[in-house]
Write a structure and sequence with these properties.
By secondary structure, this protein is of the alpha/beta class. It has a domain of about 170 residues: Hexapeptide repeat proteins (UDP N-Acetylglucosamine Acyltransferase, domain 1), CATH 2.160.10. It is built from 8 helices and 15 strands. It has a 6-stranded mixed sheet with strand order 3-6-9-12-14-15. Strands 1-4-7-10-13 form a 5-stranded parallel sheet. α5 crosses α7. The longest helix has 29 residues. It is elongated.
Length: about 270
């Protein structure tokens, strides 16, 4: 018991840079308090003192804002960061070295008896506000993005984001440089976060950027041919986003829109 408590305390230093010393962690981390209280509740549940186990779990919920059913199984070095609003169901299983952030729910999707809550294998990280529902398995090393809703099994090492949860995976693409250049040209700058993923939405945008790049190449060829035939092609740069009446907050700016319209009339 004391060895597990020591590991629970020391693992905080590996995953929270704000942790200063053992006394600070032991006295001010509700996630640690909830895990320690659960170990007592789970032991009471195991010897048949179920009402006492539930009362201890309820007291822990009042003090920490974290609700863990006494029957849930929690491994070693599990860290609940911040913790407020975390809910762990009766048949949930959390493996060693897992990390849960605030607002996480490991819930069920059925009222039937038996296994109805998720199983998290070793090293799984579940982001803030995420919901992992049903008797599913998140294999070793999985990551769940903030506010994602996961209702299907996830293979080892994968990352799940979105509602409903969808897999993303890092990949190297030969067209990344072209996509970034054309995205910058048209004012699209969302690739700082998602350029290395295979998210379906990102894939769709990438296809659009590839198409724009191909159209630009064709237009350049057409302009060259026109100039070779003696024609003149006006060099019109793409307008900046601000000149189109869009301010930094993404909202329309009536003054900029009016000025742009007047310039175009002139």
């Amino acid at each position: 018991m004391f060895r597990r408590i020591r590991e629970d305390i020391l693992c905080v230093f590996d995953r929270d840079p704000a942790a200063r010393n053992v006394f600070d962690v032991l006295t001010t981390y509700p996630g640690l308090h909830a895990v320690m209280a659960h170990r007592v509740s789970h032991a009471l549940w195991g010897v048949g003192l179920k009402w006492l186990a539930r009362m201890n779990a309820t007291l822990s919920r009042w003090l920490t804002g974290i609700e863990i059913h006494p029957a849930a199984k929690i491994g070693n070095r599990v860290f609940i960061d911040h913790g407020m609003g975390v809910v762990v169901g009766e048949t949930a299983e959390i493996g060693d070295d897992c990390t849960l952030y605030h607002g996480v729910t490991l819930g069920g999707t059925s009222w039937r008896d038996g296994k109805r809550h998720p199983t998290l294998k070793k090293g799984v990280v579940v982001g803030a506000g995420a919901k992992v529902l049903g008797p599913i398995v998140l294999e070793e090393g999985c990551r769940v993005g903030s506010n994602a809703v996961v209702v299907k099994n996830v293979a080892a090492g994968h990352t799940v984001v979105g509602v409903p949860g969808r897999l993303v995976a890092k990949h190297a693409s030969k067209t990344d440089a072209k996509r970034q250049a054309i995205a910058k040209k048209i004012g699209f700058d969302a690739y700082g976060m998602s350029q290395d993923t295979t998210d379906p939405m990102v894939h769709a945008v990438n296809c659009m950027l590839d198409h724009i790049h191909a159209m630009d190449a064709k237009m350049a060829q057409m302009c060259q041919v026109i100039e070779q035939l003696g024609g003149t092609v006006a060099d019109i740069p793409l307008p900046e986003l601000d000149s189109c009446g869009i301010n930094e907050g993404g909202e329309k700016n009536p003054e900029n829109s009016e000025n742009t319209l007047m310039k175009s009339k002139d």
